[in-house]
Amino acid sequence: MRALLGVSVTLLAVVLTGCAGAPSNGQATTPPASAAPPTSSAEPAVPETTPPAPERAAYTIPTDCASLIASTPFTSTFGSWPLNDPAVVGTPDGPYYTPSGSISPTPAPSDATLLEAMLSATELRCVWRDPQADITNLSVEIGEVDPAVSAPYLQSLPAEGFSCTQEGSAQTCAKFETESKYNVEVGQTVLVRDGVFIRVSQANVSTPNLMDTLVTDVWG
Questions:
Q1: CA atoms within 13 A on the CB side of 61
Q2: Alpha-carbon torsion (101, 102, 106, 108), positive or negative
Q3: What is the spatial distance between Cα 1 and Cα 141, in angstroms, rounded to a whole number?
Q4: Residue 152: in which H helix or E strand, if any?
Q5: DSSP per-residue codes, 19-68
Q6: Which phi and psi angles does 23 have, rounded to 5°?
Q7: Residues near 122 by Cβ (< 8 Å), separated by ≥ 6?
Q8: Residues contacting 217, CB < 8 A, separation 6+
Q9: Nearest to 176 by CA among 136, 90, 168, 184
Q10: Beta-carbon neighbour count of residue 174 at 10 Å?
């Protein structure tokens, strides 16, 4: 009896062991695959772009001398003098002719001074002067100028006694002194901004805020 009981216990153990290791459907067990690590997609390459060129400043070169000082106090000061009088600026066939009014820029000669190189780009020249006046006069010159021309010219002015200031994109140089023969004030003022120059030469006349008026004429 004990022998039979031992055999039964042994068979039961074998049966239970086999049941624990086999799947319920009788198929072989395949261990689950380990989870694949998440893949990170590379960020799309950002195409290189060329920065946009700065917008050109809005300005207009005036074409009429009288309009430069219209509705300003200057119409009753130097504005009352003869404007671009042939007896002052000469005539096209004359030896001392200075083109005035709305004109076309001309190439500067190879031996031109820095000032002459800049003034060759003049597009409007206005000369107020009575032919009978010994020294009293005022002239305005405006034009577009290459920075390669205007920059060395402006850099040369402090050595000639000009005082220069910078305000935003505008550089202004001015020089005033007393003329010894007539004992009157003479002066020159040059402003360069956005590739445009304005030059004022004057003698024996007061012109407060004239440059501000001219800047408004050009840039609005």
A1: 23
A2: positive
A3: 136
A4: helix 147-156
A5: HHHS-TTSPPP-PPPPPPPPP-PPPPPPPP-PPPPPPPPP------HHHH
A6: -70, 160
A7: 103, 105, 141, 142, 143
A8: 62, 67, 68
A9: 184
A10: 16
d(CA 100, CA 93): 14
Model confidence, pTM: 0.75
**Residue-level pLDDT, tens digit, the chain, 220 residues:** 444 334 343 433 433 344 344 444 444 444 444 455 555 555 556 556 666 655 667 999 999 999 999 989 999 999 999 999 999 999 999 999 999 999 999 999 999 999 999 999 999 999 999 999 999 999 999 999 999 999 999 999 999 999 999 999 999 999 999 999 999 999 999 999 999 999 999 999 999 999 999 999 999 9
CB 203 within 8 A of CB 178: no
Handedness of CA 160, 166, 171, 173 (dihedral sign): negative
Six-digit token pair at 183? Answer: 């004992």
The kind and range of the H/E element at 164 are strand 163-167
H or E element that contains 207? none
Q: Quick one: which of 139, 149, 145 has its CA closest to 187?
A: 139
Q: Are 105 and 142 in contact (CB under 8 A)?
A: no
